[in-house]
Design a protein that fits this description.
- The complex is a heterodimer of chains A (312) and B (150).
- Chain A is mainly alpha-helical.
- In chain A, 86% of the residues lie in helices and 0% in strands.
- Chain A is built from 9 helices and no strands.
- In chain A, helix 6 runs antiparallel to helix 7.
- Chain B has a 5-stranded mixed sheet with strand order 3-6-7-5-4. In chain B, strands 2-1-8 form a 3-stranded antiparallel sheet, with no helix packed on it. In chain B, strands 9-10-11 form a 3-stranded antiparallel sheet, with no helix packed on it.
- The termini of chain B are far apart.
- Chain B has a single domain, classed as OB fold (Dihydrolipoamide Acetyltransferase, E2P), CATH 2.40.50.180.
- Chain B has 2 helices and 11 strands.
- Chain B is globular and about 45 Å long.
- Classes of the chains: A mainly alpha (312), B mainly beta (150).
- Chains A and B meet through helix 7 of A and strand 3 and strand 8 of B.
- Chain A: Keywords: Coiled coil, Membrane, Transmembrane, Transmembrane helix.
- Chain B: This is CheW-like domain-containing protein.
């Protein structure tokens, strides 16, 4: 549950950042395009102004109408000359062309001043454009850089969640649903079948010793063994019944009993071993130890199921 | 493919299967308090969650001779019914596939009347009759005692 929630949050966050990151890249490309367009425009204006200045100088020197026409042609291409204030300058040149007054330098001087001023203006504009472009580009790049870091961290977090909370770990798989609990019960049952078989062996051995006339074990012992075995088996059946009917009260009740029973049986068997069956089990020392280990494992499994059931 | 779970019990030397539906618990080592002047199938009374319920002896019900006095009780509870069914032993809970259930042939058992056998489980080499608990509880001598006490 925690893992799912974490993954949902990480994925949601990652998707948002990736979308923003993509948009930012698009904005950056657009910024480049806009900058280049504007730069070209300004450069073109500067070029036109320079060309007009050259032609103006030629016109001043030679008074050839061809230069005047060239100035007019260039002025038509320029955005600056579209402004209503400046056609006057052209008109003045026209006037000079009709009545050449070589000494009328004011017209040329005004025109030249205007061209210089405009060129300076355009150069400033270009300079500002470059500064602004760089600033904006740096800002966008920084944003993209941080977004990339966040995406990388998100992906690392995603992998870490998978490593530390693996989905398919056996325990989680077992506790994943009710059917798996039955699977677990099968394991418990298998262990207990083995366990019951051992108890029966002990019982039979005691019976054999009794038959052979040796004073090993009393009737009370046999009765006890039988009782323990019965209790154990019925506890297990009730557990199975509880799991099949999803009766948590029944499950909890018999888990407790089950654990108590195990302890009792183990103590009884160990006691019996020392009292009556020393010789018989001399070579089977490992059996009791293995048995004890089985019980401890079983206890763990049952504890886990119990905790799981309580949490549920 | 349907699967059902059955409780395999012993009454005398006879093995029978009961559907786990309605069986809420298996009890052993419990003291049953005898009731006077009731049907011979009812061997006593038992308290469950502050409610009293009768104990029906299936061994006696099917007329099987039984020396062992020890009884294992099955708590059978539905919304309206609460009874304990006494059997000699409960062996296991088995999962039975649909194809392992057969109709009961006439005169299958000389001990259990066919009327109470709903069908037959054939598992490996075993043939186990499935007992219809509802029919037992509907028996005229038992029915008056099966309702949950208020």
């Amino acid at each position: 549950m925690i893992k799912k929630l974490l993954l949902i949050i990480i994925n949601f966050f990652l998707i948002l950042v990736i979308m923003e990151n993509y948009k930012e890249y698009q904005r950056l490309n657009f910024l480049d395009e806009e900058y280049l367009k504007e730069k070209d425009k300004i450069n073109k204006e500067i070029f036109l102004l320079k060309e007009i200045a050259i032609n103006l100088e030629k016109f001043r020197l030679f008074f050839e109408p061809i230069y005047l026409e060239e100035i007019k042609k260039l002025a038509r291409k320029s955005e600056i000359f579209k402004n209503g204030t400046y056609p006057m300058l052209i008109n003045n040149l026209d006037y000079l062309a009709v009545k050449p007054k070589k000494n009328d330098l004011t017209v040329f001087s005004n025109f030249r001043m205007f061209l210089t001023e405009k060129e300076k203006e355009q150069k400033n504009k270009l300079n500002n454009l470059e500064i602004n472009y760089k600033k904006l580009k740096d800002k966008r790049k920084e944003k993209i850089y941080w977004q990339n870091i966040i995406i990388t961290c998100g992906l690392i977090a995603f992998f870490l969640v998978n490593i530390f909370f693996p989905f398919k770990n056996k325990k989680e798989k077992i506790f994943n649903n009710y059917l798996s609990l039955l699977e677990l019960l099968k394991i418990v049952k298998e262990k207990n079948d083995k366990y019951l078989e051992k108890i029966t062996n002990w019982e039979n051995k005691i019976k054999e010793f009794k038959k052979s006339g040796e004073n090993l074990g009393t009737s009370q012992d046999l009765k006890d063994i039988d009782n323990y075995r019965k209790n154990f088996a019925y506890c297990l059946l009730n557990l199975q019944l509880g799991l099949l009917q999803k009766d948590h009260l029944l499950i909890n009740k018999y888990f407790t009993k089950f654990q108590q029973m195990k302890e009792k049986i183990l103590n009884f068997l160990i006691q019996n071993k020392s009292q009556y069956l020393n010789n018989y089990f001399k070579e089977s020392e490992e059996m009791i130890n293995g048995f004890k280990e089985d019980l401890i494992n079983l206890k763990k499994i049952i504890g886990e199921i119990k905790n799981y059931e309580i949490k549920k | 493919m349907g699967k059902s779970n059955f409780l395999i019990c012993e009454i005398g030397e006879v093995e029978l299967a009961l559907s786990i539906y309605g069986i809420k618990e298996i009890l052993w080592d419990v003291k049953v308090y005898p009731l006077p002047q009731v049907s011979e199938y009812i061997i006593g009374i038992l308290a469950d969650d502050k409610k009293l319920a009768v104990v029906i002896d299936l061994v006696k019900f099917f007329g099987i001779s039984e020396e062992n006095k020890e009884k294992i009780l099955l708590k059978f509870k539905t919304e309206e019914i609460l009874v304990f069914l006494a059997v000699k032993d409960v062996k296991e809970i088995i999962e039975v596939k649909e194809e392992e259930i057969y109709p009961c042939p006439p005169m299958f058992s000389s001990l259990i009347p066919n009327y109470y056998i709903s069908s037959l489980i054939k598992k490996e080499e075993r043939f186990i009759p499935i007992i219809d608990i509802a029919k037992i509880l509907a028996h005229e001598e038992i029915k008056p005692y099966t309702m949950i006490s208020k």
